[in-house]
Amino acid sequence: MKKKLISICTFKEGENILSLLKEIRKFDKRSDILIVDDSPEDHIEDILKKFNDNKISLIQRKSKFGLGSALKLSLIYSIKNNYDYLIQMDADFSHHPKYLPEFNNLSNHFNFVIGSRFCEGGKSDYTGIRKYISIFGNFFTVKMLKINLCEITTSYRLYDVNLLKKLPFEKINRNGYSMLVLIVWYLNKLKANMAEIPIHFYDRKMGKSKLPKTQILVSAIDVLILKFKDLFFKNKITSCESYKFNKECGLCRNNIFSKVNGLSKYKCLTCFNII
Asked: What residue ranges of the chain have pLDDT lower than 50?
């Protein structure tokens, strides 16, 4: 049986996480779950004790290091722990766990699957200006980068871990939602066998959105940079040792590191210590 991991990156989602875990277990009782949390004041560890599930692991970071590094940490964690597949999802119920069985089914045929609001059958609860920004932003990104998917901007996705091992993690350094686009851009370069499933993207019921107001502009600039690279550079992905987990961080005692681009040093993805 394939070994699967569900990862959830959280920041100030203490009021959502317990309900989400209960809902996940309705649709997937076997997969391990990893939570990467950037808000120690939420006391996620105490919340998890109430759930009493020994297949859940928590990496507690001391402050807000950002979504991008949390996503990268979970990617490399899945490699370190020899998982076959990794599913990433949000903690605010915008990604409903009811789609997990479909992701699992498609993992037998594709090495990357994304939940799509914009393919046939997909739906989003966004209204007003948020709805049109979301539609235009995704359309602009897909067309500019010429990726054969209707949606590349959600973080509800499944990866074959063997595919992740080929990624140049030292070059995947964007924070926030640009990280999600950058990863798909590299997967496209690797000729990943990609698919999408229609999802209903729900608006959060509790808590506040963590999307910075400047993120839309930053993401647009990042897409233009990738387009420039497509036009003027070959962008051949070369294999290198872009991650490390055979050393222990002297500060936090964790052992998941990503290579620092252009240097022979590695950054701890839990506390950002450089070795």
From this structure: none
